[in-house]
Amino acid sequence: MIGNEQREHLDTWIAVRRVFSTMGRASIQELSASVSEYLAFRTSLQSFFDAHLRSYCQGKCFDTGRSACCGKDSIIVHFADIVINVLLSEDADLDLLLAALATEPRGFACAYLGPKGCLWKLTPIVCAMFLCDGLIDVCLKGKGELQETWHRLQEQRKTFTWPDHPVLFDEIEKRFLALGLHSPLMHYHFSPGLLRVKRNAGLITMAKPLVSRG
Known about the structure:
The chain is an all-alpha fold. It is built from 12 helices and 2 strands.
């Protein structure tokens, strides 16, 4: 039996896939265009990881099966992560991922972690930008140019995910809410913390309390 959180993920993937099946070509093309800049950012991020971090992560965590960043209680997924992956994935990829989510995870490993690695077509942004202390110490500490590049990537990430201004991840949620899909993974609409950021930025207003007439 899978846990509640894993069930929320599974239900969201199924719901997003179902909505995609009802979307016309024009709507899907519009969505694709809206994420193009983000995908370019992810390409830059992946290039940085492959060049400077991959070998350490492979040997230290994946090969040993002791990954803390791929523990089942550590992964944070945004609704937009799932939408973008459904957009990029073939049906066979989605079938494999959904089958894994429908299966009770064994041990500490994340439900998305298969024998050959992560089952996501494009890993969640929180996972992609998580660096453990060991990784920082070995690969980045004292290397000014690499640290500057990493800082630049972190700042670029905020332009898509930090809602003190209109951002892609929030807009994707709005698009699917308008299509009638609701998910607990829609953090930009249901997370108190992110709602506070939006409110402080003047993007939303506090609802007025109801006045009792009794």
